[in-house]
Amino acid sequence: MRSIFSILLLTVIFCNTHAQIAADSIASRNWSLHAQATSIWQYHPSFNAPYTGTHSLLKDESGKVSFTATVFAGRRLWKYATLYFNPEVAGGSGLSSAMGVAGFPNGETFRIGSPKLKLYLARLYLEQKFALGAGKEVETDDLNQVQQHVPARYISVRAGKFSIADFFDNNSYSHDPRSQFMNWSLMSNGAWDYPANTRGYTVGAVVEYHTPNWATRIAMTQMPTYANGPVLDDHIGKAYGLTWEGEKNITMNKQPGTIRLLLFHSLAAMGNYKEAIQKDPSTPDITLVRSVPRTKNGIGISIEQAISKNAGIFIRSSWNDGRNETWAFTEIDQSVSAGMVWKGEAWSRRNDALGTAIVVNGISGPHRDYLKAGGSGFIIGDGALNYGHEAIFETYYKFNIPAIFLSISPDYQFVLNPAYNKDRGPVHIFGVRAHVEW
To answer: Mind naming one GO cellular-component term on file for this protein (predicted)?
Structure first.
């Protein structure tokens, strides 16, 4: 434990010195080094719950705290090639052990495998760009981004261990629970059951064709050996995820925006909802019908648009076929979300931000029947189901204190029909996030 915080302290000292030396320079560098630490506290008052299942949000519980800390190290190796290395520590707990709401309120809890702090490797990957033409751009120093001059038009290959959400559905206003909305279904397309282990990471490769105005990328990555499992399956012929995305920059009223189309196909030994009910209609268990590899296919659309220099909006919509069980992310088969973010410069708080969003989640017919019969997934399962769409409202205010690299964000979430169950809730969730980034 002491060694972890010693590493973070040394990182802060290094990054402060590094920033002072080259604050005004745009010259290429060989190293990038940053760190972050995030703690989220959340609590909900008692709510209506005539019954509670094994995977329900508990009616009464104390507040819960999660913690993560990451070191982001990057080293330029040769022309347009960079190696990234991210050790990470995580611990704590989410409300009800991170169960009971499909759009779970704390986007950091999926990284937590144990209440005790544990150090592990989050990312280790190589990125190589291949220039297509003579134009150049500057990539500034950032998290997992070494400052350097890069081609304006290029093909890149990234290979190793990473989070696939690092490179896909990267919405500027709604993507990072460490600094933006905290809800799981506001981090990415909610129905995108993206390939990842318990902590949100996978192994594979991403190939991208990038131009100043549009880009397209495709990835092939590993799946976990079982639903929400910590170990990735090495049998790539029987378990893999394919993800494709097209991205186009747009302009509206002279303000920038981006539209993205996402397609995904997953193969793994998923259980089938209908087969689980046929096997045992009274207490179906999806884990008992995991045999042959099965597929999941889906689509997502994401739009972000600045409406002024201090405000922007986003809209997302996603769907998957919902025939087979959720394997990696969360139990959502359809999702629509929209929101708005204001920069604090509008009220003379240049580094602050205010965000407000709503998301509506749904599940397929077979998924509903399975939960209604008493089945559970790895996220939800009340033992019964009076189906209704899960609707979530979230708002946060980020107080930024640049002098000490700290932001404090009070957060409120209202959850209607948690786990798609009209018999339970609504739930009011109050939270506070502390985030330090160097």
So the answer is: membrane
